[in-house]
Write a structure and sequence with these properties.
By secondary structure, the chain is an alpha+beta fold. It has 3 domains: 74 residues, no CATH class; 143 residues, Voltage-gated potassium channels. Chain C (Four Helix Bundle (Hemerythrin (Met), subunit A), Up-down Bundle); 77 residues, Helix Hairpins (Orthogonal Bundle). The chain has 14 helices and 7 strands. Strands 1, 2, 3, 4 and 5 form a 5-stranded mixed beta sheet that branches. A two-stranded antiparallel sheet has the order 6-7. Helix 7 runs antiparallel to helix 9 and helix 11 crosses helix 12. The longest helix has 26 residues. The N terminus is likely disordered.
Length: 347
């Protein structure tokens, strides 16, 4: 049983054997060499039978570089014990204030305010679409800048902009900051507002401003703010890590669903073809029916009317239930693993 597996395309050797570590005669450690014969490490992979805590102890025992262990922990969803801090003292204080709520009461308060403002902005986005709620958005075709929803949205955007500016100023590595998905979400959350506002100020006509398809899309983009909650929610972080780790299983599920949908949509079309009351007039019509049937939604807007079509529908429903079960154990296993790591119970 391999305790540590380190992969690289370069030639490798297997010189180290420490079966006493796990009382297993097949216990070993994989080492890799570059062209100069120097041992290098690339990617750590934990064998399934080896528990996390034992595997981490093995990495420390074999004196694997701390950087590699940190990368492994990050990929496995552990809470990072390493803080990348700016060298400047005042930047360090700002960075701790914005990124690490557990370091001080002020940082905790800022994190709470950030969550509240994020939730408020999402509620505003939804409520303002209710007919009659935001009728004062325009007065005689002109933008009403005193409208409550506009004022609240402006205040939320000012807070988000302040967050972005402070983080950019204080971050220890500007390039890493820009590459981080969570920070891209922060930037994307404020850009649509400023584009829409500049359009309002330029045209001074809210009807033209709101009717444009591109600007309407920008308003929808504001929904990315919901991802800001991942910074402060362990549950959301676990979900993202789970789906990322389960990608291969999910792709297998999608391929299986696509094949089944294609088969059943074709079968139902030819089975119902020629029936006077048929609701499936083409194979693309059958796509919709097959998707709704296999996912057990069953809208009932398109149904088979012939006996053969009903038999095919029954088989499609049963097949859908079985196909939906493919990713469940994979997702469950990954969720339990990442949840244990994030809550500290997997250390």
């Amino acid at each position: 049983m391999a305790v540590v597996s380190l992969m690289n395309q370069s030639r490798y050797r297997r010189p180290v054997s420490r079966p006493d570590r796990l009382n297993d005669p097949d216990g070993d450690l994989w080492l890799f060499q570059d062209s100069k014969g120097e041992t290098i490490w690339r990617k750590i992979r934990r064998p399934e039978p080896v528990p996390d805590d034992i595997f981490l102890r093995e990495l420390e025992f074999y004196q694997i570089e701390k950087e590699m262990i940190e990368i492994y922990k990050k990929e496995e969803g552990y809470i990072s014990s390493k803080m990348d801090l700016p060298e400047s003292k005042w930047k360090r204080k700002l960075w701790l204030l914005m990124e690490y709520p557990e370091t001080s009461f002020a940082a905790y308060v800022i994190a709470i305010v950030s969550v509240v403002v994020t939730v408020l902005s999402i509620i505003l986005f939804c409520v303002e679409t209710i007919p009659g709620v935001s009728d004062q958005e325009c007065i005689d075709g002109k933008p009403n800048y005193a409208e409550p929803f506009f004022i609240l949205e402006t205040l939320c955007t000012i807070f988000f902009t302040w967050e972005v500016i402070v983080r950019v100023i204080a971050c220890p590595n500007k390039l890493s900051y820009i590459k981080d998905f969570k920070n891209l979400v922060d930037i994307t959350a404020v850009v649509p507002y400023y584009i829409s506002l500049s359009n309002l100020l330029t045209t001074n006509n809210c009807n033209e401003s709101n009717m444009g398809t591109s600007l309407a899309f920008l308003r929808v983009v504001r929904l990315v703010r919901i991802f800001k909650l991942t910074k402060h929610s362990i549950g959301l972080q676990v979900l993202i890590l789970t789906f990322k780790a389960s990608l291969q299983g999910l792709l297998l599920f999608l391929v299986a669903m696509f094949v089944c949908i294609l088969l059943f949509s074709s079968a139902i079309f030819f089975a119902e073809h020629g029936h006077p009351d048929s609701q499936i007039h083409s194979i693309p019509d059958g796509f919709w029916w097959a998707i709704i049937t296999m996912t057990t939604v069953g809208y009932g807007d398109k149904v088979p009317v012939g006996p053969l079509g009903k038999v095919i529908g029954t088989i499609a429903a049963i097949t859908g239930v079985l196909t939906l079960a493919i990713p469940v154990p994979i997702i469950t296993e990954n969720f339990n693993k990442f949840y244990a790591h994030k809550t500290g119970r997997g250390k």
